[in-house]
């Protein structure tokens, strides 16, 4: 039995790997158990939204991720309708075009500096929790079983989560009604043309069409991503192989010059199923990413929602394990992230309706198209898809524009909190009792003259007030960071 693990994470996707990195940064002994024996190199997702770019930049990790990216797309979309990201209040007003596999590769490589192992070929088959921890059974590639004991277990093992199933957590919602598929393909030259056209990334054309949806994105090295959804994909079992004929039919519908199929490297089916776990935490077992919520990939939000789950959970779990967490801190993970997930499910359902070739849906789409020409309406929807409008409920002055919102541009590479205040202010002196958990940073442009801001390790403002209000600051520090040093 392995008893030297504080947190066992099931699933080595972006959610599980980012969570493992956050725990490793905090000095937590974590391990990741992954059913697959090695990375497949396949990528379901292809983008990072602006808020996820901010998350990575907050830790100083964005630059190496950008080095692995394919493009920057200065816009988002809502059911294919363009959203202007240049109007967003962020240093990263664009989507980062990057295959999920490259994000996973960076995150896993990054774990090495913390000594966090990724146990590949280890499938979680059972779990039992008690007041002190969780006992899990892991089955290896040769069928042998090992027992792992951890203080907490996090299920980040995808939409068909074994952890969620073993917990018996209700997963209400609805099954998929629209079938689609994705394929990474190689193209062959047609009529003397290039076998690897260099077209730039563009927003998908999701105008309702009885023939279905079909569009291409270049992934480099002669590989293209094909998204297809037409009559041929409806009513097909999700586990059925995607045929070459399906791919050729969709390829013929793609805009642009004629293209021929050379080979299909990888293909998979998906639907617009929409479900969310009733609870993200059951005792010492927590759910994150697709294990906690599934939805249609409309707007490119799924990978980002999961990574932001991990960013919210990591510091809270670490503080709990180190005995520094105030009462109820870990419970705020569900309280904060469940509504965010529900909102994504709602907007993806709305987007899918707007892609249907139904007369009523077309009328609504025309109306929304007109509304999105209004800059403020476009900015509001863009912020929702980009993830920059998230605002968690926080005690304090509700009318302060930053309370509960993210603090853009604040870097927290050590995974600690920060007080943005002048060095000589009264609140800086008061916060010194939390110096092992909270750093002081220069006030900068976020805080007004005579004001201070307290920022959590996940980059959200949890207190804002005058820089002489030591009483309210101490209350906020205790609420989010626990008791002061004695």
From TrEMBL:
Keywords for this protein: FAD, Flavoprotein, Monooxygenase, Oxidoreductase
Residue span, FAD-binding domain: 5-347
UniProt xrefs under InterPro entries: FAD-bd, FAD/NAD-bd_sf, RIFMO-like
Superkingdom of this protein's organism: Bacteria
The keyword Ribosomal protein is assigned to this record: no
Keyword Cell cycle among UniProt keywords: no
GO molecular function: monooxygenase activity
Pfam families on file: FAD_binding_3, Rng_hyd_C
The protein's required cofactors: FAD
Protein name: FAD-dependent monooxygenase
Source species taxonomy: Bacteria, Bacillati, Actinomycetota, Actinomycetes, Kitasatosporales
